[in-house]
Task: structure prediction
Amino acid sequence: MASFYVSFDGAASERELAALSAEPGIEYVAERSCENVNAFRVEAATPDEAVTRLANAADWLMLTYHVITVTSHSV
Result:
């Protein structure tokens, strides 16, 4: 299993960010508040799977977002 950093734009409260991070294999790592961009480290086999895992969790919380970047991270 690899780790990928997935960044997305979209407003999220601290509670929503904590709920996303509560998902196994998803960790909130950064926010650039001036750009309203949030970044998560997601454990997944592929970049597509990482985006899907985070998107499913965000959809469950009914967050509105757009994926900006996906980068790999060696573990």
